[in-house]
């Protein structure tokens, strides 16, 4: 066993959730020998339960079939532990006998303090065609943190946090050209991107390009761009590519789904190709030329897949590292050679700390979802990253930041990471919503939401729909409810095992489960074909999250629809920002929402006339943004510490 291999079998590869297929077979089902099981957060590896895998398994040794647990080891306990979650009546609603496909699960609430987190419990039959709600819901079973980064669900999500070591190895990726270059078509509004106003501020910006030919990409890159179905560049690519190729630092803001990923990948790969870099697998220390960081595991994996696609057939080797996956597996992958390292912050820092990744050759540092990477959840990690003694100073590296939203305070802080002459590229309104998304608001009371969601989903049928909720247990609860109502649903949130998360996304992407219930962990960056609806079952508590969430639909010139349930009691503080966002996107503002904005909290100073393109480079001073809801640090949007009604 390699020195970095995990020393013991972790139960974290063992799904606490069962997916029941419509055929009645359970791809991921398992049976515990004792029925109930639990696991201790403080030592899941030893305290959980031992399991023997009876069938399935892919070439990586992952579970692919049914498992039979040999019974709980010490430390396991049942889900009916004391806890704030346990007094709830939700559990009784799940009798586990609903047939149907449900990539979600349900866990009994149990809060036993740290070291005794999350007992699981099941009801009903675990096997066969019977519905199984075996994982997912944990009730109110999380530690309560009051402030700071540890309370940040995405931060914990991105890394392993204090979770035990994991042995999950994702399935091997298909490497045939069709899979690598599979893409969806740009939509009827793609050409309208050309009408969006673009502002580049800073000194001596280079001329924009109009075509990919003008980007002077080398032959293999050019071919890969063609095979990806890209015919002409989007505005962020037209301006971003020459800026990066000119060696300038960049803070770029462009609406969701408008091609920011290729805007930074193509010029970086082009330069690396021109320099003739080649990944060497002969070194125990790999020194990538580019590092890309993003806040969530699924997003960084997606960026990696894009990098792998564009670098196809070249000597440039991208690698991805993120939490929830075996560290040993990722180290072995790095040591095969690494030019472009894509990572979530914690795992990336871990790899550097272990001496597997060196920084002395670094030329490019990219922060995707840069505002998120610099808010209080991730900022310390970013400062640690640039603070490594080996890290080239900002004068000696190129730093690139991309997002659809940039609160001013974050912009000011971002300047610490950038050369003073960085360029600020604004495509359209900074922080504005994608205008290809039709935004609708429905006034609700908290008690009517579930039925309204069901009514809505009955009208959308099998159209792919993402339903955003505010908390992890809400995600489990709603997903389970929908499953019971025979809506093919799966869920993704930070408490699900990585294997479950990847399975949930795969089921959603393939259409096997056309409804994905998600927390904000899926709000940013994810590019999923044919998402036709986004539902904000719970509105987020900051406007930037709203912009990112609804941006999961209406991508790349396609049309999308977003429906938001607005509960005046809970969402009043967002009204003003919503009115601004709607009017900036030339959408109708419901009169009741406008009233709410005028009469609700923070109405004083509301100025609906602030319209038109605003210069929003903070160096110019001032922007249209409503700082009341933008300035709330995402770290306080605790995913799991709110009472569910
Ligand atoms: N020039 C282009 N022509 C055709 N398709 C493109 C082009 N550029 C990007 N795309 C496709 O558009 C989709 C959205 O791109 P991408 O995910 O990079 O958007 P984004 O701006 O990063 O969005 P978000 O803000 O949500 O992260 C992807 O499927 C991508 O392959």
From TrEMBL:
Residues 9-32, 624-635 have a biased composition (Polar residues). It catalyses: ATP + H2O = ADP + phosphate + H(+). Residues 48-57 have a biased composition (Low complexity). Residues 97-122 have a biased composition (Gly residues). Its EC number is 3.6.4.13. A motif (Q motif) lies at residues 210-238. Transmembrane segments: none annotated. One of its GO terms (molecular function) is nucleic acid binding. The keyword Nucleotide-binding applies. Residues 1-178, 596-645 are annotated as: Disordered. CDD domains: DEADc_DDX4 (cd18052), SF2_C_DEAD (cd18787). Residues 138-165 have a biased composition (Basic and acidic residues). Residues 241-424 form the Helicase ATP-binding domain. Keywords: ATP-binding, Helicase, Hydrolase, Meiosis, Nucleotide-binding. The keyword Hydrolase applies. InterPro entries: DEAD/DEAH_box_helicase_dom, Helicase_ATP-bd, Helicase_C-like, P-loop_NTPase, RNA-helicase_DEAD-box_CS, RNA_helicase_DEAD_Q_motif. It comes from the Eukaryota. Belongs to the DEAD box helicase family. DDX4/VASA subfamily. This is RNA helicase.
